[in-house]
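Example record

The entry below shows one chain as it appears in the dataset: sequence first, then structure tokens.
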Amino acid sequence: MKIMPNRMDRGFFEYQEEFEKKALEVLRSGWYILGKEVEAFEKEFAAYVGAQHCIGLASGLDALSLAFRALNIGPGDEVIVQANTYIASVMGITMNGATPVFVEPDEYYGPDPDAVEAAITPKTKAVLVVHLYGQSCRMDRIVSIAKKHGLKLVEDCAQSHGATFEGKMTGSFGDIGCFSFYPSKNLGAFGDAGAIVTDDEAIDARIRMLRNYGSRKRYYNEEVGVNSRLDELQAGLLRVRLSHLKEMTREKQLLADTYDSNLMPAGGSFEIPKRLEGANHVFHQYVIRCKDKETRERLIEYLSERGIGTIIHYPIPPHLSEAYAYLGFEKGSFPVTESYADTVLSIPMYNGMTQPEQAAVIGALNSFS
């Protein structure tokens, strides 16, 4: 039995008839950009998140870069972000000329609130929180800190569609919530896609203008904008998936519960994910943490020999990447982040995962020592 770390075909086949019907409907409509499907998805997704506005975009990275641009954050400004995130989070900051100020994560992989507050300087203009792996950050503390210091708050929700903290959806806490609909996400499209949600009418209007070449009216350009429009086909397919997101989320949560209840690491070789009290984890990934880097390498090889695939999210923290060498960080700058990079491992977790597949993963992990 070959078990992939993630499978997207199962999610398609589950609702194949609905996807194909919607695709043909869009193709036959003759309207493919900024039409009724995008408008309908924007309304439906805003309502789902609990926001006043949603703007469909071409990708999650576009959502991040346009978010900071809409907040007028640029050269000379600092944005605090956890160091253990995916590099796209940081790119959204630096593409606008602003400087990322890294802080260490807590045990739930979100930014440590105390570290966030300690990192604030006169140049700090915003905090970017990343709800990593499908679990909300400690938003009670983060929101309080942002308000106390008059900072903008942006949420990277690329992995947290449907996740909540104390009953409130991720994406609805800050000034702007940024979403990716990359195919592997819990709410995934069939290509690149993204969105921003906000309660601010001015931000909504500006991002709608920026996404369309800086134009509100055709051929009248107010700013040098971008071409970042969620297309009709992706919007239509996302509407189908959104209508089933609740049941798909519950399926992943049940898989996670089964892992939690049945994984018994021998000799402390790894530990299962910790769940934050008050947070509703949607498990974009099920991430275990190995005792050390050597143990992780042995475990990856052990599972691979048994036909079980794994992924490391993420082996190189942004501050140690070649892309951000100019920031001047060296190994040891953020030891908690670097420890996570050396020890985290995502095991198979996807909609449509069968009981025999999960049993095989559990059996292999429990036999490892």
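Notes for this example: The first helix runs from residue 9 to 14. DSSP finds 13 helices and 15 strands in the chain.
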